[in-house]
Amino acid sequence: MPPPATDPLRIALLTYRGKPHVGGQGVYVRYLSKTLCDLGHHVEIFSGQPYPELDPRVPLHKLPSLDIFNEHFPGRMPGFWEIHNLADLAELGGYLTGSFSEPMAFSLRAYSALKSRLAEFDLVHDNQCLGYGLLAIENLGLPVLGTIHHPITVDRRLETTHARKLTDRFAKNRWYSFTAMQTKVAQKLQRILTVSQSSKDDISKDHKISPKKLVVVPVGVDLEVFRPLPELPRNPGQIITTTSSDVAMKGLRYLLEAVAKLRQERPVSLSVIGKPKSGGAVAQTIDKLAIGDIVSFISGVPEQTIVELYANSQVAVVPSLYEGFSLPAIEAMATATPLITTTGGALPEVAGRHRETAFLVEPGDADALAETIREVMDSPELANRVGAAGRERVAQRWSWQHTAQRTLEQYRLLLDMWEPPSHNLTSALLGL
Fold first, then answer.
1. How far apart (Å, rounded) are the C-alpha atoms in residues 262 and 358?
2. What pLDDT shows up at residue 430?
3. For residue 89, how many other CB atoms are within 10 A of its CB?
4. Could you tell me which residues come within 8 angstroms of residue 406 by beta carbon, excluding any fewer than 6 positions away?
5. pLDDT in the model for residue 432
6. FRET label pair with 343: which of 66, 372, 396, 412, CA 20 to 30 Å apart?
């Protein structure tokens, strides 16, 4: 029997990575869990590293991975003494065969952590993992709801398309082979949340899921933190962007090319919230364009520092080729910083009308980015008007309170419709 609609719910919220300040997963679990607690519910987080920063009321259960792809030594080889269980073996085996096995291994760790605590939770909410262990959790009788911010199949297509060599294309396809697992798991879950209509359409198409079990629940922004700071001056020529990973989908290459074009005519600088991969595509592009002196990377800083960076910048840019929603877009808009974004994925859905609440350009076009940045910098009245309208758009549409309320509605619906399944895990694991 599901708990009555007025009773507090007990929620196990899973995230295989919970990076605190850059990337949507850590931000999502932090604010959703905090707001659910504000509404009187009990939430516990189960996370792999990097671990999220949480409200003091929210317990964090650390389920450490082998940390093969950590920031300091990415691609490290674990020692045999680190292999203690099936999840460790699965993670290592995937790495040795060239695939990203962290989501599957995390789901197995989550299963091990929850199997002795079934009576302590009403449901499990998975954040983007979609590993086979979720089906094992359902087999124990605990309902599972999933959130898919966007289908990783899109990343796979973009990465393989931008691969320059046949061997690179093969390696990318092998790396992203875990998306086949995510498709199988997503098809079996009874309820899935996503963050935009664009993502819903792509998830339905790529994972072959009926749109009837996909529900759009947008994410939010903390308007008390991300706010205008009129007392801080906007530095002429300063551009700000956020990127959580050194991948083609984020489109940072095109922004770097635009900045290189602009520096030939005016003083400009680019602040990147994020950390590049040593020797990766971003670092190589910066060296090739000889713009290392005007590009700086900022990571591991508190949100207030990020807000101040927005306040000091003339323009914020989201150059992504595709986004399922884009927290950086609404965070920039919430600070009233004029936003330039592409039309990739859900970005027009988020940013609104061109030259009214944001400036929109086609993805993958460095010339269009340079031209639009130039226009914003040279038109302060237009920039201020669009920035203020962007803030108003965010304030009217997106808050974590709204996200939490809509998510709770889906929790209740899942519990009302829940029928314990009997998944054939052997067939799933064998890919049958």
1. 20
2. 46
3. 15
4. 217
5. 38
6. 396
Contacts of 31 (CB under 8 A, 6+ apart): 219, 220, 222, 400, 403
Q: Do domains 10-220+399-430 and 238-397 have the same CATH topology?
A: yes
Give the ranges where 18-151 is alpha helix by DSSP (H): 24-38, 86-96, 102-114, 133-139
Check if the beta carbon of residue 335 is closer than 8 Å to that of residue 228: yes
Distance from C-alpha of 100 to C-alpha of 94, rounded to nearest angstrom: 6
pLDDT at 425: 60
pLDDT score, position 4? 64
Tokens 């819903």 belong to 200
- pLDDT averaged per 10 residues in sequence order, the chain, 432 residues: 77 90 78 96 96 95 92 83 93 91 96 96 96 95 94 84 82 88 95 94 94 94 94 96 81 96 96 85 92 92 92 97 92 97 95 96 97 97 97 94 96 92 63 43
Alpha-carbon span 355 to 34, nearest angstrom: 35
Residue with tokens 């898919």: 148
pLDDT, position 52 = 92
Domain boundaries, the chain: 10-220+399-430, 238-397
Q: Which amino acid is at 111?
A: Y
Q: Which residues contact 58 (CB under 8 A, 6 or more apart)?
A: 33, 34, 37, 43, 44, 45
In this structure, what DSSP letter does residue 350 have? H
Vertex 165 angle, CA 160 and 171, to 5°: 55
Instruction: Give the other-Cβ count within 10 Å of 412's Cβ.
Output: 17
- Which residue's entry shows tokens 């709801």? 145
Q: What is the rounded CA–CA span in Å between residue 42 and residue 9? A: 6
Question: pTM of the full predicted structure?
Answer: 0.88
Is domain 238-397 in CATH 3.40.50.2000, yes or no? yes
Helix pair 152-162, 178-188: axis angle to 10 deg: 160
User: How are strands ordered across the β-sheet holding 295-298?
Assistant: 295-298, 269-273, 238-242, 315-318, 339-342, 359-361
Burial class (CB in 10 A: 0-12, 13-18, 19+), 141: exposed
Q: Which CATH topology does 10-220+399-430 take? A: Rossmann fold (3.40.50)
pLDDT of the residue at 19: 77
Cα(129)–Cα(121) distance, rounded to whole angstroms?
Answer: 19
In sequence order, the β-bridge partners of residue 193 are 147, 215
Q: Quote the CA–CA distance of 420 and 103 in Å, as a whole number.
A: 23
